[in-house]
Amino acid sequence: MKKVLISLICLAVAATAFWGIRKYRDNQFGISITLQQSEFPVGKSVEIPVTALATGVYEEKAVTLVPEIGGNVDWNKVGQYTLTVTARYKKKVKTENFTVTVTDKEAPVLTLLTKEGYFTLPGGTYEEEGYTAVDNYDGDITDRVELTRDGDTIRYSVTDANGNTSTAERTIVYSDPLAPVITLNGEPEMTIMRRKPYLEEGATAVDNYDGDVTEQIVLSGGVDTSVVGEHMVTYTVKDSSGNKATAVRYIHVIESDRPIGDEEEAKGKVIYLTFDDGPSPYTRQLLDVLDKYNVKATFFVVYNKNFVDMIGEEFRRGHAVGIHCYNHDYSIVYKSEAAYWEDFEKMQAVIKEQTGQRTNLLRFPGGSSNTVSRKHEKGLMTKLAKQMGEKGYYYFDWNVLSGDAEAKPISTDEVFKNVTKGIEGLKGRPAVVLQHDIKKFSLDAVERIIQWGLENGYTFLPLDETSFGAHHGINN
Q1: Are residues 396 and 287 in the same domain?
Q2: Is 245 part of a structural domain of the chain?
Q3: What are phi and psi of 368, to 5 degrees?
Q4: Do 357 and 430 fall within a single domain?
Q5: Total of domains in the chain
Q6: What CATH number corresponds to the domain at position 44?
Q7: CA 158 to CA 110: how far, in whole Å?
Q8: N or C: where does the chain have the smaller number of CB atoms within 10 Å of the terminal CB?
Q9: Which residue(s) pair with 432 in the sheet?
Q10: Three-class DSSP category at 419
Q11: Same domain, residue pair 368 and 433
């Protein structure tokens, strides 16, 4: 019993010593707080890398603590910020202040711009193509870019508000990639009669670097007017940089089966149905009527973007297609001799696109006897009529009026009567009938006119180079 009592007393003493030592050790621990990184790039919000440990505890292993961080950091603004970090373990508390620095060490982005197609001529002055500078902190700082030039090298430099600098270089390259521009004198496409002399009108050439290089133009090809067909004259020129330009003039040599000018009226019961100012919404209906009787007519066309494809349809159905005008405005067409031919060639191009070939048939707006041209140029119609023959074109007026162009509308019956009476009044001479396929009331009379003509022994034909022109007396 005594031994047991002694043992218990020893155990109590040992336990008291143990807990006393542990309490002593626990009172001797320390708290350490560490800021692992104190400098951060601007514009990047991060978690503050702070660690806190309790060391010297009884277990002899550091205990990781969760610190409390006070203070604010503006990650978008360069500067220094103070953080207060507090760590707690048991009854002990430790607080430390740390300085955090937000820095900008990123250089601006400097970009040299290039203009598409830009070049500097040899010996010329370089025109700045442009540049931009954008900084991650300052934003657009293009206006801070500084340029220096050393010979053919341009150096660009820009520094942001925090002292970060970017540089770039551009080397000026001199070149002349553009060929001269050739301009043909006269028309680029022309028609002349067989064995008529071809007059070479020449061309001019201007280069962006060399200036006037007309004298260096070389001609190739030729025109043999004894041969009917298409001929070409090619104009070639090179500049001092080796750039070559070419231009081609097309000359159509045609055979003439009748004299030019006032021809004798042909004999025979022939009706030439001609339609001006189309195509229109009614043209297809008219073509169907003509097909029904296998009658071919002539269309003197104008440009109408909504129905331009009908020109090709007229041609494919076997009808003759001639030029009336591109812009049916007398003040434009008859403004001058040059204005007329410009309008003429524009319509010629439309017809060629639609039919695959040029036409040598035409009708003057208002006819060759019009007087409106007097307002613009004296003697204009006389000159144009003469030039038509010289160029191998055939113009046609009319000798039967349908009356469908009068200011006061008329009926379909009146159109029929006007045409048939007009034909009868010619007493067997060829009849060139003028109608307009933009007037439905007029087209509604066409079938009756055809029926009447066939019943009375007339033949319907399209106009061609051998047809009677029904020329009026020229009044200007």
Answers
A1: yes
A2: yes
A3: -70, -15
A4: yes
A5: 4
A6: 2.60.40.10
A7: 8
A8: N
A9: 272
A10: helix
A11: yes
